[in-house]
């Protein structure tokens, strides 16, 4: 009897140690914003690519928590193969939903909830998603969810609604096109949800 229990326990322990594969690979990035006037993206670094649940938790817990970042730094989680910049072909026609956060604790929670939704493939329009950025700033921290086809209003509205549920935000959130942001920093939003 004792050996039966021991066998069950060891099977469970072995199962827990098995890496749980994610649907796809994801990459964490890191960036430090330059002083105004300096070239954007010179500090942008691809830090770690993973495809298991275990690696995700290890990386999140040890490194990728926005509350650990100083002001003017960013973390990103993007699908592997997509660079977190407008210039990447997957982002070239895209845009982003943005949520501001006024407390470090809520930034960490919203970031983690978003990461889990992304790696858990919780969005219906999963092909539309490129990644998410956490920006730590002097005034208000911000999360931005980058998507692929900005002009696909139905897809973006559906993603925006779902994201609000995930991060538990009641205020309106805005979607801007990267093309507009390239032209004018104080760009207006195209969609609101
Ligand atoms: P931002 O970070 O998207 O705007 O871009 P935000 O959030 O209003 O500003 P922040 O100071 O809070 O970060 C800020 C500026 O960075 C843009 O106006 C661009 O000059 C530059 N920039 C930002 N992004 C995401 C890119 C990019 O992907 N490519 C290039 N070339 N420049 C970028």
UniProtKB/TrEMBL annotation:
Give the source's domain of life in one word. Answer: Eukaryota
Instruction: List the PROSITE patterns hit by this protein, alphabetically.
Output: IF4E
Q: Name one GO cellular component term.
A: eukaryotic translation initiation factor 4F complex
Positions the record marks as coiled coil are none
Keywords for this protein: Cytoplasm, Disulfide bond, Initiation factor, Protein biosynthesis, RNA-binding, Translation regulation
UniProt KW Cytoplasm keyword = yes
Q: Which InterPro entries match?
A: TIF_eIF4e-like, TIF_eIF_4E, TIF_eIF_4E_CS
One GO molecular-function entry: RNA 7-methylguanosine cap binding
Keyword check for Kinase: no
GO biological process, any: defense response to virus
Q: How does it assemble?
A: EIF4F is a multi-subunit complex, the composition of which varies with external and internal environmental conditions. It is composed of at least EIF4A, EIF4E and EIF4G. EIF4E is also known to interact with other partners. In higher plants two isoforms of EIF4F have been identified, named isoform EIF4F and isoform EIF(iso)4F. Isoform EIF4F has subunits p220 and p26, whereas isoform EIF(iso)4F has subunits p82 and p28.
Recorded family membership? Belongs to the eukaryotic initiation factor 4E family.
Q: What is this protein called?
A: Eukaryotic translation initiation factor isoform 4E
- Give the originating organism: Cephalotus follicularis (Albany pitcher plant)
Its taxonomic placement starts with: Eukaryota, Viridiplantae, Streptophyta, Embryophyta, Tracheophyta
